[in-house]
Write a structure and sequence with these properties.
This protein is α/β, with parallel strands linked by helices. The protein contains eight helices and seven strands.
């Protein structure tokens, strides 16, 4: 199976949007772990007065995590899938949360421009054709010393963690998704994780994009060794010595 990319992937997410939240709800700790990663941004004062970009927001689970953890922040939530965004926009949101349809690679064309005080990206980077280009765009969108948190399926490199991931997908996720008519998307999900960077490799990718203070933080539960939070920041201004 070839991995889905660009318009094909967006179309698959459009089709799956009707049942996406149901499948997510079957994942123990899914929403709590997103909130944990949002807290790891370490933004002060509940984000009061800050601009946050939620890149790859899907049906709004990551947006809800940010809105809960950062009640004072202005949140711009972006996704390439019209179907996923439609589902997200139907949900009740506080003032200061807006949704924009745009691929991660073409934010400026959709009017999404920085500087942002923080960027949050959940389950995004293994789905883009050129993760290095997206990381460079994220760096440019951040304000000096702005913060990045990536919440992503990135295997540890240990065979046991790969086996758990494959077992969950083949034993539970794929059979249910196939019954719902979304088998191609969830086969992509399984394979995209297996073929994507290990956690250490992705951390090196983040550093190579010019981001600093990169840390790899594990997540608890069954996804230990499967899902990680990566936190980093853009260097400061020249007056700060680029630190």
């Amino acid at each position: 199976m070839t991995l889905l990319r660009d318009e094909d992937l967006a179309a698959a997410f459009d089709h799956a949007s009707r049942s996406y939240d149901t499948l997510v709800a079957a994942n123990p700790g899914y929403h709590g772990q997103l909130r944990r990663s949002a807290r790891r941004l370490g933004l002060p004062d509940g984000g009061a007065g800050l601009r946050v970009l939620d890149l790859g927001c899907g049906t709004g689970a990551s947006t809800a995590a940010l809105a809960t953890v950062l009640p004072g922040a202005e949140i711009t939530a972006v996704d390439a899938s019209a179907g996923m965004l439609e589902r997200a926009a139907r949900k009740p949101w506080r003032n200061g949360v807006t949704f924009v349809q745009a691929p991660a690679e073409r934010l400026a064309e959709a009017g999404v421009r920085g500087p942002f005080d923080a960027v949050f990206a959940a389950y995004l980077f293994r789905n883009v054709a050129d993760p290095d280009a997206v990381l460079s765009a994220v760096r440019d969108a951040l304000a000096p010393r702005g913060r990045l948190a990536v919440h992503e399926y990135t295997l540890s490199g240990h065979a046991a963690h790969r086996a758990v991931w494959t077992g969950v997908c083949r034993g539970l996720v794929l059979p249910v998704a196939t019954l719902l008519g979304d088998g191609p998307l969830y086969r992509h999900l399984w394979r995209s994780v297996v073929e994507f960077d290990t956690a250490d490799r992705f951390a090196e990718r983040v550093r190579a994009a010019g981001l600093r203070d990169v840390r790899v933080l594990p997540l608890p539960g069954w996804q230990t060794g499967i899902t990680h939070t990566f936190v980093a920041r853009r260097p400061g201004t020249a007056a700060e010595g680029g630190r």
